[in-house]
Amino acid sequence: MKISEQWLREWVAVRLDAKALAERLTLAGLEVGSVAPVAGDLSHVVVGEILAVAPHPQADRLRVCQVNVGRKKPLTIVCGAANAAAGLKVPAALEGAVLPNGTRIAATQIRGVDSAGMLCSAAELGLEEQSSGLLVLDRASKPGTPVVEVLGLDDRIIEIDLTPNRGDCLSILGLAREVAALTGARFTPQKPRPPATRSRRRLKVTLKVTLKAPAACARYAGRAIEDINPQAETPLWLRERLRRGGVRSIHPVVDITNLVMLELGQPMHAFDLDRLAGGIQVRFARARETLELLDGTSPTLESSDLVIADDRRPVALAGIMGGQQTAVTSGTRHIFLESAWFRPEVIGLRARHHGLHSESSHRFERGVDPQLQRRALDRATQLILEICGGRAGPATEAVESRQLPRAVPILLRAARIERVLGMTLPAAQVESILKRLDMRVARARDKSGRAWKVTAPSWRFDLVREVDLIEELARVHGYQRVPVQAPPATLHVSPLSETRVAESRLRSVLIDRDYQEVITYSFVDPALQALIMPDQPALALANPIASDLAQMRTSLWPGLIQTVRHNLNRQQTRVRVFELGRRFRLGANGATDEQQVLSGVACGDAHPEQWGSATRPVDFFDVKADVEALLASSGQAFLFRPARHAALHPGQAAEIVQAHTGVVVGILGTLHPGLEASTGLDKSAILFEVTAEALQTGVLPQFQEFSRFPSVRRDIAVIVDQAVSAQVVLEICRESAGNLLVNLQLFDEYRGEGIDSGRKSLALGLTFQDTSRTLSDKDVDAVVGRVVADLQARFNAQLRQ
Q1: Residues 299-307: contacts with CB within 8 Å, 24+ apart?
Q2: How far apart are CA 122 and CA 248, in angstroms?
Q3: Does residue 200 register a pLDDT over 60?
């Protein structure tokens, strides 16, 4: 929310400067995001009165203006604005001025005519994004007066990041109340004057309001105003207040309703009275009803959509957006003002369902004061009569009192305050703080001692429990003044299993190997997930926060790939990231299976740039070594077997198998080349994902007696088909050799001259040892012969001479 500091100080006489005020609000839980001036440096920009306008002799679109800027003689200024006319008072940038867009003003010649300055539009002063002509100032402005003074630009915009529970502060009124409570400054609420109204019999149209959904809308107030001036324009002061609140000017009537919303926090809407048929009904939508909204969209209405309707059709989506057919336009002469209270959950759910967000829905879904509607209606009526003219009718109001929120007294105990805050607040201070927050306070007694019965004001929906009141005491007293002390507690330390590998250890392994941990959303883009996990059904969200976060992730890879892409797009040449988190998969019976997994991606250079070795891209075996180090932390044996995965390169993918169970616990591979462009990567990426349970289930090391007898090593080279993996060959060797084999090492692979096409040579080192005797050559030869025979039988292996 953006507010004008000047506007705020009109309501509360706070003595703090802008910086101190921002700090006080932040410390009280209303975080100030920024404090910025409302305009740039406008030195040498003054009020200029156009005395005369003549055509430029050399250019049809230019005019030569004589401008009074408060000096003895008027200045000649060449201007191209179509609305330049004698008698107007406009901003004049004199020699030496530097406009916010960087334009430097100096005396010059424009097509042969001397020009001593520049007449400015609002856009050129940085007050609007676009302007169609000169900014017309108040006729009472004195020529030569600095524009900063005339427009009140010596002001700052305070932007506050409000939490959803503080909807009461989404207005000048609410924030002024808060500042007064926090600082003790004098709060001066500005109440509107009761508007002069006409009787119903003297109005052309009267409207009846009917509440057909009182649980969703318990109060609806309205008023007809006839014969407004269609040529009326929004005054500059009002446009400036809207601009400083982040709202653009549209039409005088609409601008006034928006001003009241910023001022009081009550969203309002104005209908073109001539386009309404009959009375106003607040009801739920019917089947097959349609409504074109102000933004041009036409959502399909459902029975849970609350609408404002006349006797023929819906005319507004209640609390969210008005309809195009009854909108106020430049030709509107008669209007009907709406000021209502809607139940927050009704508005919030339907706004998100339709993907709509407006200033009105933003406030209604957080809660609007149910006692504010008539006050806002009178304030808007007063401004419309002053700016647009017209005749106002009496207010029409429908109320279902039983459906309005009711504040229930909350018991606040002094003992509970001391226990929660760790400090004692004097009773007088407790009462003072609560009363400054406009709460009704009555003293009470409780078995624990002193207590109070506290009733929150109508605008504080968030105060429902005793702990909420204690939070308010701490907030106003000052969080920084609450003592920091550890609460007394009895801790029971649960025994840790020696076979359980801690998550911190797994993280440390990858961090030591130059990976960085990231945390990504559990919600992912359905399109990206379909590319990476096309065969895995995903759980769709019923109410996603965004269209690209509409599914639960079935793998951590989509989020990690987006992280890698984000870093590569920012000139990072080497990215290695991992995440430990949950994936969500649908089982055969539709049940959701949540599983903790550890996933990672490496992309870019294999090593940081250095002088000792040439730069090369990371490859499959680099990441395989990282995964092997990760697997080794559990002490278990794992195998890598060739695998196929839709997202991985067919020849560079392997599944990770638990050796003693044969269960597949993970997968490793290079991203499929066809997916690199689709996922936005311009480099090859290697991915892995392993279940956390497999990594965390450790094996206790056991002592094994060292043999006192010498070992014997025999090297053999066998020729097998290229399709036979070295892993399978090693498994057969271990199986055939039996217990005498204490070490098996693959130390060479050869393909080329001397080896038939389609075959390869694997060189193996076998080390034998016995714990009870020295092995003879005969013993070793027998085992090696058995190994070679089994390899020949299984793989048609040949012993290479």
Answers
A1: 299/354, 299/356, 304/349, 304/350, 305/350, 306/213, 306/216, 306/217, 306/282, 306/342, 306/346, 306/347, 306/350, 307/282, 307/283
A2: 13
A3: no
Non-local (6+) Cβ contacts of 511 within 8 A are: 517
Mean pLDDT value of segment 314-323:
95
The pLDDT-based confidence of 706 (bands split at 50, 70, 90) is: confident
Task: Please report the beta strands in 366-483, taking only residues with DSSP state E, as ranges in sequence order.
Answer: 391-392, 396-399, 410-413, 440-446, 449-455
**CA–CA separation, 689 and 554 (whole Å):** 11
DSSP three-state, residue 776: coil
501 close to 698: Cβ distance less than 8 angstroms = yes
**Domains delineated in the chain:** 2-38+156-183 (3.30.56.10), 45-150 (2.40.50.140), 200-403 (3.50.40.10), 410-481 (3.30.56.10), 503-696 (3.30.930.10), 712-799 (3.30.70.380)
Give CA–CA dist 627/622, Å, rounded.
9
DSSP assignment of 666-711: EEEEEEPHHHHHHTT-SS-EEEEEEEHHHHHB-------PPPSSPP
Using alpha carbons, select from 209, 194, 270, 271 the residue that is nearest to residue 400.
Answer: 209
Please state, as a whole number, how many other Cβ atoms lie within 10 Å of the Cβ of residue 235: 15
Q: Taking the complete model, does pTM exceed 0.70, yes or no?
A: no
Residue 792, number of CB atoms within 10 A of its CB: 14
Given a contact cutoff of 8 angstroms between Cβ atoms, the answer to whether 75 and 50 are in contact is no
- Closest by CA to 48, choosing from 72, 75, 68, is 68
Handedness of CA 639, 642, 646, 650 (dihedral sign): positive
pLDDT tens digit sequence for 155-190: 999 999 999 999 999 999 999 999 999 999 999 887
> What are the structure tokens assigned to 614, written together?
């040439």
What Å distances lie between residue 114 and 70, 95, 121, 132, 544, CA to CA? 19, 13, 21, 24, 62
Closest of 408, 407, 413 to residue 444, by C-alpha: 413
Cα–Cα nearest to 196, from 388, 378, 375, 333: 378
Taking residues 346-356, report their average pLDDT.
90
The full DSSP string for 537-594 is --PBPSS-SSGGG-EE-SSSHHHHHHHHHHHHTTT-SEEEEEEEEEEEEE-TTS-EEE
88 vs 121, 135, 140, 146, 399, CA distance in Å? 13, 10, 11, 16, 49
Q: How confident is the model at residue 382 (pLDDT cuts 50, 70, 90)?
A: very high
Mean pLDDT estimate for the chain: 92
Distance CA 198, CA 217 (A): 27
Q: How far is CA 12 from the centre of its chain?
A: 32
pLDDT bin (cut points 50, 70, 90) of residue 498 is confident
Q: What are the beta bridge partners of residue 222?
A: 338, 396
- pLDDT over threshold 90, residue 493: no
